[in-house]
Amino acid sequence: MRLRDFCRKVFFVVLVMVFLIGVTSCSSERSTNQAVKTSPGHAVDQETVTRNVYENELARTPPMGWNSWNCFHKDINEVQIKQIADAMVDSGMRDAGYEYLVLDDAWMAPERDSNGCLVGDPKRFPSGMKALGDYIHSKGLKFGIYEDRGHSTCQQLPGSFEHEQVDMSTFAAWGVDYIKLDSCFAENNGRLTTEDYTIYKNCIIKAGRPIVLSISDFGNGGWAWDGKDMAHLWRTSGDIGADIRSVYNCAETSAGDRHIHSAFNGLWQFAGPGHWNDPDMLQVGNLPNPVEDRTHFSLWCILAAPLMAGNDLRSMSDTVRDILTAPEVIAVNQDPRGIQGYKIHDGGDIEIYNKPLHDGTTAVLLLNKGSENADITVTWDKIMLSGKQKVRDLWAREDLGDYKDSYTAENVLQHGHQLIRVGSIGAPLPTPEPVPVDKYTVNNSGITYLSDLYYVWKNNNGPNSDKNGNGNQITINGVTYDKGLGCRGTTKVMYKLNNATLFSAVIGLDDSYSGDRTGRFRVFNEDLFGNRVLFDSGRMSKDSPAKSIDLDVKGVKCLLLVFEGRNVLGNLADARVISTEPDTEACE
Ligand code: GAL
User: Fold this and answer.
1) In terms of pTM, does the model score above 0.85?
2) Residue 253 belongs to what H/E stretch?
3) Nearest CA, atom 6, ligand 1
4) Can you say how many angstroms the Cα of residue 560 is from the centroid of all Cα atoms in its chain?
5) Of ligand 1's atoms, which has the minimum distance to the CA of residue 216?
6) Per-residue model confidence as pLDDT tens digits over 357-396
7) Which residue among 42, 190, 214, 238 is least enclosed by CB atoms within 10 Å?
């Protein structure tokens, strides 16, 4: 090879390398994929190390930190964020366990730079995000940042859609440890939610820095479509507000049947070390009084929810600081066994929750959501104990004595509660049996009627099984059906299909519906963000003939059925899936 050709080749290779560096990260301080030595003689590549850490070591207990959104919304800047970092240390929050300082929406400039890279807003973050991350790290804290998987964030700033790798590599180069990944505009992506979050997971792993990934999707069913395979936590709710009713509503998305079949008793069985239900960030310090602040905090602790403080730490009162740093209450949240607490009593205004801990004791929350003071009694049989048991008040940090068979919290204030620990150190107490997988997943070959399965996600109403929306026999155009799903008003439900091949049903309004409104049936692959419509009936009235639908659902993991029509009775009669065994005799 002539020297000139050789030089040309070298020049070309260097050019390509420079280009690749430019597109995979936007910072000179990139993380690289160099080989990492784990033990003498064994070289493991950085991606494998990161994958292992990402999947097995992060968020073993619910993440704790602070996030800018609940108190500052869009109004954030580097001076104030540094003050927050200082306050996290000075207030004792860091030492109490709060480690992630997360910048929510609106940290970025309205446009990417000329290389297509995200940059901090030049007026509000003039020193740049790497410098801010360095400051946060210098305080012994971890750096968290917000992005959106759509083309824009919720505040109309640049989103990560089609910039996934470059953005994740940029974050890694800035030293980011936690990403809250939102979902505004994601319905335009043309991808399923699971496809989206899998892309981000793989980009993070490729970027070579272990980063906690928090799914923010307003409660779109992360537990249902195995969000745990992609991320470490997922939202179960819409946005939390600074009032106790909103706090209760968000808690219900995780503890109640707002978004799942009531047979599950909330989402507790879907949480555990490395994967958590997230009913949204804390409003402690933003609520009108300490009684409500404490109730909110205890609820989040018993639900093993991520503890992301959302108040202005620079000006919080000593009372609020003491609430956020209460050691024995936080210990319930951070218990290494990682069981999410579940309701053992729901009497409307009075609720009792139980969270068995790793050391043989159990935490019990006695909650008064009502407007009158109340006495609340927990009996030991409900928490797998009997006889005489020790009781400790976790807010007062004092032993209350031994109680036989039960304990009564007296005169609990409205929106107040008592949080106690019951029992003695020993073998861990059992939890209730989780709902078995085959009760909510199509596992058998042949026909499975969806009315024989529990749905794993719902919004609005859930359907009736084998009855119309009024609880009577399903009837369409004079034909009666013994099986099927009956909806009353707008109904959205997701079923886990696994490996089914065909979905079929006969759809139409119930003969008993006499109104003039119309109803519309749609079937989606997975969730609404995915926007993969498999079937759309258009508007059907009571006079429309029934429609038979047969849909190919090969590869569809979760099927979403949507019926829309205010107070209309709509049926998916005989709704069923057929699974065929894979043809093992097939030729190669
Ligand atoms: C919402 C999200 C909030 C906050 C906000 C920022 O979608 O639920 O927690 O991040 O976007 O615009």
Assistant:
1) yes
2) helix 244-255
3) 105
4) 18
5) 8
6) 999 999 999 999 999 999 999 999 999 999 999 999 999 9
7) 42
